[in-house]
Design brief:
The protein has 351 residues and is an alpha+beta fold. Helix content is 22%, strand content 24%. The chain is built from eight helices and 15 strands.
């Protein structure tokens, strides 16, 4: 009679299973990939500031002083105010974990299957990553929300106007505009928008080319600016899987030497040298899936800014109130996203 290991009782009782010590499989989140924390919010890619709020200056027009003149013409000099200030408030994130000091002894070396503290810390950081991912691509419901940060959908808005143009006006719920500047008062304070029907070179790709060209503002007069003139490697192109998948098929169609790989161009779709990036979070949002947006972000203009000393700050374990054997650890972050030039960004989508 043949037996399995489980049927031999002494072997089961006397042998410990291979538990893959100090390792584990992470199935704690639904998203295949995160864009915010690992890619956009890295310390090397963000700004740090202090002060009551994040403030920036915007030149909204010129003085209108240039004119034609003749010999011995009479000068008429007028001074016109052309500067405005935008302001964005600080927003705050926090995550935490706790442990009883006796757990450290119970989870000590020779009896340890996985590091208990590391597991709890990883869980807290994953919670922070999930919240920041949602925040990056979202917006507060309206101006009364004083907790949620200003995400991409706050700064870049869509438009039902079919023709491409700077129709990305103030978001719903923000009568005073973005950062205190309204596109009603300042029409140039708007992002580029456009509608497409088909993911093809003649439709979507043509619209993307137009958007990239029309958002490429370069001043003829040298001046101190927050961002350099547009360069291709400062852009990020973000969209849904439906768009990325068909873009990769377009790429295959223009390549005659694909070999035997039926998905040889997966992950290679690019636009003007910039990768077209799939955002898994978009797949969880009904509005995104309904309109398949293609979002062009110039990261020289749309920047995450953090309060100095408050970027993913993790304090030492502190004894919890009324629980003298329990220690708490808090992970805190203070900052917000800021866009200093809406016109260099675009939001394209289906009607």
């Amino acid at each position: 009679m043949e037996l399995t290991v489980e049927q031999i009782q002494d072997l089961v009782l006397g042998t410990q299973r291979e538990l893959g010590k100090l390792k584990w499989t992470d199935i704690a989140t639904d998203l295949q990939e995160f864009i915010a924390l690992p890619q956009v919010l890295q310390r090397s890619k963000v700004e740090f500031q202090s002060g009551q709020a994040i403030q920036f200056n915007v030149m909204t027009g010129t003085t209108g002083s240039a004119h034609h003149t003749g010999l011995f013409g009479i000068d008429t000099v007028n001074v016109t105010d052309v500067m405005q200030q935008g302001s964005v408030p600080w927003r705050h994130w926090t995550a935490d974990y706790a442990f009883d000091r006796r757990e450290l002894e119970i989870n000590d070396d020779e009896y340890r299957v996985f590091d208990l503290i590391k597991v709890r810390r990883t869980g807290a950081l994953l919670d922070m990553a999930k919240l920041m991912e949602e925040d990056l691509w979202s917006k507060p419901a309206d101006s009364t929300d004083t907790l949620m940060p200003f995400g991409v959908r706050y700064w870049l808005t869509a438009s039902a106007t079919a023709a491409g143009g700077f129709n990305g006006v103030d978001p719903v719920g923000f009568a005073a505009g973005r950062a205190g500047l309204s596109s009603t008062t300042f029409p140039r304070w708007a992002n580029y928008t456009g509608l497409y029907a088909v993911i093809s070179k003649e439709d979507l790709v043509r619209l993307m080319r137009r958007a990239a060209r029309f958002t490429n503002f370069i001043s003829p007069v040298p001046q101190p600016q927050y961002a350099e003139a547009n360069r291709s490697n400062t852009y990020g192109i973000y969209t849904t899987y439906a768009v990325v998948g068909q873009m990769e098929e377009l790429l295959e169609a223009q390549n005659d030497n694909l070999g035997n790989d039926v998905a040889s161009r997966d992950g290679f779709a690019r636009f003007r040298g910039n990768p077209i990036i799939w955002v898994p979070y978009f797949e969880t949002n009904a509005d995104m899936l309904a309109h398949n947006p293609v979002v062009g972000i110039n990261w020289n203009t749309l920047r995450p800014v953090f309060l100095k000393g408050e970027y993913m700050r993790e304090d030492k374990p502190a004894v919890a109130s009324k629980q003298h054997t329990t220690l708490e650890v808090h992970i805190d972050c203070s900052g917000n996203n800021i866009c200093r030039d809406l016109r260099r960004n675009f939001w394209l989508q289906t009607a």
